[in-house]
Amino acid sequence: MKIIISLLLFSQLFFSCSSSRLVDEYVNVEHPNFQANKVLVVGLTPDGGLQRQFEYSLVNALMAENIIAVKSSDYFEEPVHEIDQSEENLANLKTQLIAEGFDAVLFSKITGQHSKVTVVQSYRNLIKSFESFNDYYNENRPVYGSEQIEDYPVYNTETSLYCLCPEKERDLVWRGKIDIVDPPKAATTIRDYIKTLVQTLKKNNLLILK
Length: 210
Fold this sequence. Notes:
The protein is of the alpha/beta class. It is about 40% helix and about 25% strand. It has helices spanning about 1-15, 50-65, 70-75, 85-100, 120-125, 135-140, 185-205; strands at about 20-25, 40-45, 70, 105-115, 150-165, 170-180. It has a six-stranded mixed sheet.
């Protein structure tokens, strides 16, 4: 039992080193050799300040890998969500981006939030033996009351990399889901998230590394 507890605590320490981790990804096999060189970075959030902070940090991280990257907050005169979403306008936008040398667009957004119980709380629940319904109900009354539960928030994010390929109709190249666990300050969270994202893109050979 001591070995199990040690492993659980080690896992907790390991994951606490970073607030972000990749939990799922999809790679389009129709684009086996695609590598991005000039990317438009789009952060999808109603918080303009957070969007600019995220895009600025990701653009800097990509430029550190010698990738040409441009913030959507600089490229567009209006917020992304206010752009005309008609098929005709989006097609014209794609043509414009290609003409300007862009070969990819990267979107990031938060898709949901949930809570997870801490390792310590999980262990407490595991070792307790409830002999009756009353025991179980009384132990779990805090769930319905105001007592604090030992848990932490997890934000679910989704990032998609689209190829601006004139000859391809299906232009999704890669999509990944990254969980942000118990996020600290915004700057630290963004840094960890971007580090995980860039490492994943490099692992999948989706960036032209010079």
